[in-house]
Amino acid sequence: MSEMKVIVGIPPIYTVVWINDMTENLHVGGVVAIGFDKNNNYMIVVSHSGLGVYDTNGWSLCARNSDLAYPENGYVTGIGPIDGTRIKVVEKNYDNDSLTLSSPDGCWEIKYEDGTIIIESTQQSDSKSGAGQAGPADR
What we know:
single chain; disordered C terminus; mainly beta
């Protein structure tokens, strides 16, 4: 749920829209690693069942491949809309059973636990006269 705040003393053409309360849960079992493309448009998930690519604008699954492709030296090769792109990933720490990372632009905090990828927005979006800057939920 987004909350809109009007800044007192500034003409109403400028507002700050807070979206940091946005959380999304994706249910994916057997996650090995997660990463983002350089533009933060896609998140790639590596699991024991293959690769999945999620569009960060709505978190819909946009590509899936059941071929096993585990990270090599911290990278995987993208599929679907990021096909052939070398993507840096963060691998699961099997000593403490955790996987946490931030998107390269800092808009998203990702945590994987118990078969669920928890995605939390960390940013606010500024908009002026309706023209607006796209925040993570608006891209």
